[in-house]
Design a protein that fits this description.
Blueprint lengths: L1 H9 L7 H8 L3 E5 L4 E3 L7 E7 L2 E7 L2 E8 L3 E2 L3 H6 L6 E4 L3 E7 H10 L3 H25 L2 H11 L8 H8 L3 H11 L1
Antiparallel strand pairs: 1-8, 2-7, 3-6, 3-8, 4-5, 4-7
């Protein structure tokens, strides 16, 4: 049940009755997509808040030498261009699925209904933004203070499903080449 998954995600920050999450669930739809589906193209506006029920994906930025993976997301977490979704402006971020996935989606229009009608909606939205900010800031700190090997080992310990992530996405996320990541993986064995 989607409502139970959302409740579990937010309970450490705000413990709300399950009915709040059931009402939230009523505003969205569940859809399945194949691996490599682009949920949001670069330079477009994010129209959905996506919650991964099964699978994984990430946010990519494109430059002259290819893509840079700036986020990897797995089951029971949100996958979207949050800045674009919030501001309803185009950004250079592409949102892509890395494997066959099932997603719970709420349109921006329906999400606005939640904000207007829900007594806890502003707090939930603020908490989601804070969680995203904290995760991104920690990622920046780790990138500047830890080796790729240390970051990889932490991902293995803390992110279930990381072993399913394609080498090219994981290496980009760590800021190294796929060959360097292969060496790190070989050392670990």
């Amino acid at each position: 049940m989607i409502a139970e998954r959302l409740k579990k995600l937010f309970d450490p920050f705000i413990c709300l009755d399950l009915q709040v999450w059931k009402n939230f669930e009523k505003l969205g739809v569940t859809a399945s997509f194949p691996k490599e589906t682009i949920l949001k193209k670069a330079d477009t506006v994010e129209r959905h808040l996506n919650f991964i029920l099964q699978g994984s994906g990430g946010n990519l930025l494109w430059n002259d030498s290819g893509f840079v993976c700036i986020d990897i997301v797995f089951e029971n977490d949100f996958l979207n261009d949050y800045m674009s979704f919030t501001l309803q402006r185009a950004t250079p971020i592409e949102v892509r699925l890395f494997e066959d996935s099932t997603i719970f989606q709420i349109s921006h229009q329906n999400f606005q209904k939640v904000l207007v009608a829900g007594k806890y909606a502003e707090k939930i939205t603020r908490l989601a933004a804070e969680m995203t900010f904290i995760e991104k800031q920690q990622q920046q700190i780790d990138l500047l203070t830890k080796t790729a090997r240390e970051r990889y080992l932490e991902l293995l310990a803390n992110k279930k499903g990381i072993r399913r992530t394609q080498l090219k996405y994981l290496a980009s996320y760590l800021g190294i080449t796929p060959q360097s990541l292969s060496r790190i993986r070989a050392e670990k064995r």
